[in-house]
Batch of 2 targets.
Target 1
Amino acid sequence: MTDRLSSGLFSRRQLVYSNASPNMKTRRLWPRFLDLPLRVKFFLSFLAVICFGGVVSLYFGTRLEHKTIFDLAQAKVRHDLSSAWTVYTERLNDIRDIVRLNAARDSVRGALGGRDLATLQSTLDRIRHEFGLDIMTLTDARGRVVFRLRNPDASGDDQSHDPLVRRALQRATVAGTEIITREELLKEGEDLARRALLPVKPTPMAVPRTDEREENGMLLKAASPVMDEDGALLGVLVGGILLNRNYDIVDRVKDIVFKGERYKGKEIGTVTIFQNDLRISTNVTDESGGRAVGTRVSREVNQTVLREGRPWIGRAFVVSHWYITAYEPIRNIDGRIIGMLYVGMLEKPYIDLRNRVMLTFTGIAAACTALLLLLMYIIITSVIMPLRRMVNATQRIAQGDLDHKVVRNSQDEIGQLALSFNRMTDKLKEANEGLLQWTRTLEGRVEERTEEVRRMQDVLVHSEKMASLGKISAGVAHEINNPLTSILLNTHLMLEKIEPSHPFHESLGLIADETTRCSQIVKGLLEFARQNPPQKVKTDLNALLEKTVGLLENQAAFQNIIILRNLAEDLPPLWLDKTKIQQVFWNLMINAAEAMPRGGTLMISSRLAADAPAVEVRFTDTGTGIPPEILNKLFDPFFTTKSSGTGLGLAMCYGIVEQHQGKITVESDPGNGASFTVSLPIEHEGQS
Ligand SMILES: Nc1ncnc2c1ncn2[C@@H]1O[C@H](COP(=O)(O)OP(=O)(O)O)[C@@H](O)[C@H]1O
Ligand SMILES: [Mg+2]
């Protein structure tokens, strides 16, 4: 069930997709075009426009040019046809004139009147040969043949049915083209009938024809009345030429109109006389090179010219080549269409001319296209290059190079864009630097604050520790102090009472010394615990230092130690408990000496503190130095690294300095010495 349902759904969806596919294809193609680089897009668009324009103008150009050339050719062929007509009618007029002039000859008149056939024969024979006529016939006043020049035996038949003879009997001289039957031809002469007889060659495009040969003949014929001096009609003189296989006219036309011009070995112009649709006199040649008599005209021309009596001008395939042709009907004296006159020009020269022009035209178009494309390429490049530079610049900026600048070559939109872009980069850089600066400041501040907090914490922890230690020490010291004083007092009393040689004397001395030491410790503890408030007096600090140094200098511990002084002279007097501060200096100098058991240098300096109203005294030695891990324990009571140390010296110093609202700090370079700094505030009298 589910399967069926889902398959049904699937097929429906497929249907939808297949319907949408052509649309999707264009949609897929279009973004692909849009994704192309700008330069390619421009180029393709321009190319399309140019190609479209080129194809359209080439198409219309070709058509126009073709039409122009062929219009010209047709005008020429029409003109040539009228020239052909001139030759044709001239020949007809010739015959008419010959007949008319000879009809008026005395010899003809006399011969006809007297029936002197022998004289007539010799006269007419001369005329016939002189003027190239095929027939010469004489009738009597009723139209009966009196004498046939070429066939004197055939006479007596009636010719009054002949349209020309009929007109001549009415005393008119007439000429025209006529078709006469084989029968009539035979009467005029057997050779003429033979000349007229033409086998009809099968022609593919012609109207089908049942008979296989043409027996009738076509004549240019004239008839003129023969009259005596009084004007009485004696008879009619008829003269004519058979057009079948007579090439005089067609060749004359060709010579006059085309002047024997040839194109690639072929005659350009051709002329033909048709008897109905059959070529009877022509200079069109067939495949074998002979005259193409016996072939027929196409169905189309047949219809237009022979049936409808209209001229036909156009392209036609004549025997073996294409021609530009003109056909016009030949009518007999009664106006009936009996044949055609044709003039044709070989189409090939015009085709070649057209092709040459076209080729030139195409060549020029191609050159122009190439030139346009080149121009376009230059223009596109000049437009794209700055954009390309801009894209590069954005990429470099994205990678963090905010110093990169776009080169600005123009004042146009792209130039303005570059300017704005550079401005934007500057602003970005400024903002970035501000941000970096701010971050650095923030980091510094955080560090500073952290350090401060840590220091405060240390101080807090230390002073808490000191405070609780102080309380214990003070309590213990106070309790021990009195018994110690009493022990010391009694020991001294006992020592005074006994002789130095007494065995207890040495022991008592030892007790006195150790007790003194104990009381010193207690004193130190009490100092540390700030038991005695300081007795501050106005003090010259340098003098106090000198005094302390003077007391210590001669001690054994200082024998190998050079003491240097660097004491500031302009120090203000300080309010201090001289004894306690001297104790501090003393302890620090002793510690320094103990750190330099093999000698060294102790530098004592004093100066005004730079950042606070205070005086700093600094003791710098070149001793062992202090390892960093014990730095924060130095001021703890009882912290010592010495076997016989009490660990109270620095604790005491700390207590005293704190009583003076001062500070004591230590710096050390392990292995190279340590430096203790005591900072004492500058107070005025009455402050504490
Ligand atoms: N100038 C100094 N150079 C090296 N170490 C020192 C110096 N001053 C003090 N110390 C160290 O500090 C410890 C504590 O000194 P102090 O409180 O005077 O006690 P004590 O001198 O009895 O050891 C010393 O044991 C010593 O290790
Ligand atoms: Mg000490």
Target 2
Amino acid sequence: MGFLFGGKKKTGESAPVAIAKTPAMTPPVVTRTDNVGSPAGAGKPKTIGELKASGYKTLPIREEMRRNLTALIKAKKPIFSGIIGYDNTVIPQVENAVLSGQNIIFLGERGQAKSRVMRLLIGLLDEYVPVIRGCEINDNPLSPICKSCREKVAKDGDNTEITWLSRQDRYGEKLATPDTTIADLIGDVDPIKVAEGRYLSDELTMHYGIIPRTNRGIFCINELPDLAERLQVGLFNLLEEADIQIKGYRVRLPLDILLVASANPEDYTSRGRIITPLKDRFGSQIRTHYPVTIKDEISIVEQEWQRFDDGDMKYYVPDFIKEIIAEITHQARRSPDIGQRSGVSVRVSIANMETVVANAVRRAVTLGEKLAVPRVTDLPYIIASTTGKVEMEGFEEKNEQKIIDDLTKRATLMVFNKYFQFDEIEPIVRQFNGGFNVETSESMSAKQYLRYLKEIPGMAKGVKKMTDAETPEIVASVIEFVLEGAHLNKRLNKTRVDGKTIYKK
Ligand SMILES: [Zn+2]
């Protein structure tokens, strides 16, 4: 763990951040449908004959990914861009799994970027690969497996049309639920085709499920332990024997698929949730984790949180506010009051950041201020963005509000004590001896705080320590942080009346 917040940090060093619209998350992955009409074929062979003449060699998916990964490593190019904090843990293991051609299962609690890592694996595929035009299961033009394509090639030979499939279209994903069926995953017989007079045993009556449709691609199954046992058996047979029984008919499907799965570690290791032979098919079991450092947690929040353009109004989030938000999540991950089985996602930090900024924006709009800066008094609002994402334990004594308040206090104290020594707050506290008190509130304008710089000896110095900015909104936020820090160090009392906070001795 690195040394994160050493030395003097100035929250006002950079100008208030202009608001940039950035996509918050990667776009949703569309599981592929048919490859008909792909526009990718420009300049590429259009028939099997042209493909053969071009000397093109098709590779099994594992060899293709392995070759591309090796090239990326050699070129020192990033393989999983946007993934923070996994450089020395998860990523080398994923690379080893790809280099060894193994199916992968990711074990981790929620919000550990499992899905994102899985989706980024498509970056290891060729940009385009040739498939027989119109094939539902992306048949390799040089060795088709479906009956329809085999018949087509037998009839049209080298004139058989091909098309080019992009890497984005070679990814399929399914969330396992107890009601997932064989038809969803592998396929079913198609009653319409049967009605057309075909024999039921004829493979042409098959309506393919998502796995065959991801042939020559990466198929990801989330929450694998939720898959019914007979489906696990079906999946195993498909991988092991390359064939599958559907409604009593045996269909041979030698698919070429990299299987990736995810699971909560407790579900995966609990007896009976996964059949052993299927477990054995995952050569690599990779444990994901939450950001180890506050710095990584903040980097992820900064990458992901949703920003809006409010025109003239800007916002600025002081570093200590970011640190408190990240620290609240880290505290929650160790708290006995919070269920650790499903974990505390990084999404809690992201949503809490959005919430405190929203409250600052609401205040700025209400008061007609041009700069929205979150304050300590905005933190209680994170209850809305936290409670739905964590599981509370032991309700009988503590309610949710109390649990989150306690986490917030602990986090604020820890961050404050990183910046301030005891003797630095002493002159500030001394001012309160003769009955002096200070009022703060999330709805008080920033300018109203500025008088405390003059009235409280030591306050100006304390603010200076945190920021060079003289912008009232930033100064007000720091003043609150200092007062709250003195209170949490048991140097000042605090009472809350009608939405106002009074600090006194
Ligand atoms: Zn086919």
